[in-house]
Each structure stands twice: as structure tokens, then as C-alpha cells.
Fold this sequence. Notes:
The structure is a single chain. By secondary structure, the protein is an all-alpha fold. Helices cover 53% and strands 0% of the residues. It has a single domain, classed as Four Helix Bundle (Hemerythrin (Met), subunit A) (Up-down Bundle). The radius of gyration is 17 Å and the shape is globular. 27% of the residues are buried. It comes from Actinomadura graeca. This is DinB family protein. InterPro entries: DinB/YfiT-like, MST-like.
Amino acid sequence: MVTPVEPPPEPPGTLTDPRELLAGYLDFYRDALLRKLDGMSEAALRDGPLPSGWTPLELFKHLTYVEIRWLQWGFAAEEVPEPWGDRGPDDRWHVGAEETLDDLKAAFLRTCERSRRIVAEAPLDGFAAPGGRFGDAGETPSLIWILFHLLQEYARHLGHLDVVRELSDGQVGE
Length: 174
């Protein structure tokens, strides 16, 4: 019988500060992603048991680039050499044979740290800087909208990863 993995606690229900709540949940989901990948075999990390064929490593790399696209390139309008670096030649998520879990984890952790700095330095009601992902004209999203978007992206993909992990080795968790 497989023992469920105990998740870390969610941010406290007494939080009333929107910045702390959003940042707390984003870190909660980031931690959940790392926890769900921990202990998977190399074969399971690179296997796509669902009909769509995506793998846990591809999903991991995708979520790294989601943060890059929305916060670095999007909100901060930083120059990002490959904002779609998670996509392969067939426009699907892609991880090269030479890329390891350790490599992807290091990139993810660096990206999360940069994301935290961007969020800490900006008002929640601030709008994305001109340039970058959103160009120089038109309506750009607010930081609070982007953070909510990131939360739903993580929540949705972590649900997908739950299914793949259970199919892979029977591990279940929240």
C-alpha cells in the first residue's frame, strides 16, 4: 500500500494581505510541484502515460517558462532570449535528452527567485511594462491578474501531475 505524501500547510486562513496571500499560495504550489516530482524514477520522469504524451519533465520545464513568460518577459518586459524555450520543433512541450531533473530544478529555482523579486518590487495594481511580451501599445495585464493566472496554471497542471504520478508508481498526495 502506498502512503500518501503529506503536503506542507497552505498559507494561514487568517491572512488578509492580498500580496502575502498570492505569494504564499504561489510558493505553496511551487513546493507542491517539486514534491510531486521527488522520488520519481528517471523512466517515469521521461514517460508520457497519457494519450497526449507529455512527460513530468516537460510539464516541469513548461511551468518554469510560464513564470518567465508572465513575469520576466511579460510584467517586467525584460529581454528574454527564448521565452518559448519549453517548446520543441513540433510546438509541443520539449525536454532534450541531455537535460536532467537537476538541471531543470536549478533553472526552476532561479526563475522562482527572480519572480519573487519582481513581485516584491511592484504594486499589485501595477500594469506590465511596455515592450516584452505585450508590446508597446494596447492593454496590458495588472500584476494581480498575472498572479491569479499563474495560480490557476499551477493548480491545473498539478492536478495533471497527480494523475501521471499515480499511474506511474501509485503515489498519491495533495
